[in-house]
Design a protein that fits this description.
A hairpin with a 4-residue loop joins strand 13 and strand 14. With 371 residues, the chain is of the alpha+beta class. The strands form four sheets. Strands 2, 3, 4, 5, 11, 12, 13, 14, 15 and 16 form a ten-stranded mixed β-sheet that branches. It starts with a helix and ends in a 14-residue tail after the last helix. Bound molecules: flavin-adenine dinucleotide (FAD).
């Protein structure tokens, strides 16, 4: 988010310094499911406007960063069960394709059990009822952050990593004192710190509004040779019926399996991958692909991230991925959102900065200029 704002602001002629306490992309943006997607599962929670916006952004990212964002065909698989579940998923993918409009990437329709096995022979031993095919995009999340930062720097932004600045809100702006004593003064400050938002706001002595209530998600990867999928798979976990994914990444010879979605009190700097979470993901793939005998020994990598979700009541999985921009004097706080919508959110944030600076800024060009 910070990278997106820095790029957009620098492209519109503002003087920009980005302060990052680790390295860019170190936070949530390198721990995602790596999908540039509308979010088919948000259709279940009725977030139609969000899905439509994210699908439009998916198309923009495919256009401006084709080396980092690529289309992927998904099979939504359903185990034996009520026929109306099949109908429901069929309607869901058809709606998903319709919401993408002319930007839809290919087929969106229900598929019979035979059709699923024809497309993905690895499903031959699974007790399937049927399913559906739909299209999405997957992305190199950390690559996207780095490309965005590079672009910001080409347009004149300064990026300071490993930066532990003391930032104070003053009359008419903010001042950041770096560890070597250098003071950077600015007329506006954007707080784009994902799951650290409330902590950073406390340090700035801003009102404690409890904006972000993160949920933790973990992923594991297994070698593609152990699970040689040619499609991404969306499935319901056999335990709690949550939607999760198995996404092949042929360029890395691996399949990403995820994710969990649970409330957490862990600080975002020190997240753990619990054995129970790994077992939860493994159980789903073992159940779906009984012939593959996947076990803990097949896991190549595992990671955890915290979703910087807007704080609101309700089960973790049903919380909205919408965002909020909060203007308080010289400070603009961005909370919520998704990796997929980072560019449009950044555009909106810089529009707000123009208002705060009382300047007429040129229109954003981040949707046109390639990354
Ligand atoms: C498990 C999981 C799966 C997800 N999958 C997807 C997906 O497939 N598609 C999608 O669109 N979205 C996905 N998301 C959501 C998406 O990853 C996040 O919404 C997005 O990455 C948040 O970006 P951000 O810049 O707001 O936060 P972050 O990427 O966390 O960046 C915040 C940065 O602020 C820095 N920081 C913190 N405090 C300070 C300070 N005091 N001074 C300076 N710097 C500071 C941190 O070091 C960090 O680098 C997923 C999230 C999770 C957790």
């Amino acid at each position: 988010m910070g990278a997106g704002v820095a790029r957009d602001a620098a492209m519109r002629g503002l003087s920009v310094t980005l302060l990052e306490k680790h390295t860019v992309g170190w936070g949530t943006s390198s721990r995602s499911s790596r999908l540039a997607h509308g979010g088919i599962r948000y259709l279940e929670t009725g977030d139609i406007a969000l899905v439509r916006e994210a699908l439009a952004e998916r198309a923009t990212l495919l256009r401006i960063a084709p080396q980092l964002v690529r289309p992927v065909s998904f099979l939504f698989v359903l185990e034996r069960g009520a026929w109306w579940q099949w109908l429901r998923v069929g309607i869901g993918v058809t709606l998903y394709g319709a919401l993408a409009g002319r930007r839809a990437l290919g087929a969106h329709h229900p598929v019979t059990r035979g059709g699923l096995v024809n497309r993905e022979p690895l499903l031959a031993r699974t007790p399937l009822q049927g399913g559906a095919i739909y299209q999405d995009a997957r992305c190199d999340d950390i690559g996207l952050v780095r490309a965005t930062i590079q672009s910001a720097m080409r347009h004149g932004a300064t990026v300071i990593e490993h930066c532990h600045a003391a930032v104070a809100v003053e009359e008419g702006g903010v001042a950041a004192t770096l560890s070597d004593g250098t003071v950077i003064r600015a007329r506006t400050l954007v707080v784009a710190t994902g799951p650290w938002t409330d902590a950073v706001r406390r340090d700035l002595a801003l009102p404690d509004r409890q904006l972000v209530g993160g949920t933790k998600g973990i992923h594991i990867t297994v070698p593609l040779a152990r699970l040689p999928l040619s499609h991404a798979i969306a499935l319901r976990h056999p335990g709690d019926q949550r939607v999760m994914f198995c996404i092949p990444e042929p360029e890395h010879d691996q399949v990403v399996i995820g994710t969990t979605d649970t409330d957490t009190d862990e600080p975002p700097d020190a997240l753990t991958v619990a054995d129970a979470d790994v077992a939860y993901l493994l159980r789903a793939v073992q159940h779906l692909f009984p012939g593959r005998d996947l076990s803990e020994a097949d896991i190549v990598d595992r990671w955890a991230g915290v979703r910087p979700l807007l704080r609101q009541p309700g089960a973790a999985s049903s919380r909205s991925r919408e965002h909020l921009m909060l203007r308080e004097g010289a400070v603009l706080t961005i909370a919520g959102g998704k990796l997929t919508t980072y560019r449009s959110m950044a555009e909106e944030a810089v529009d707000r900065l123009g208002e705060m600076l009382e300047r007429t800024l040129p229109a954003s060009r981040t949707a046109e200029e390639l990354l």
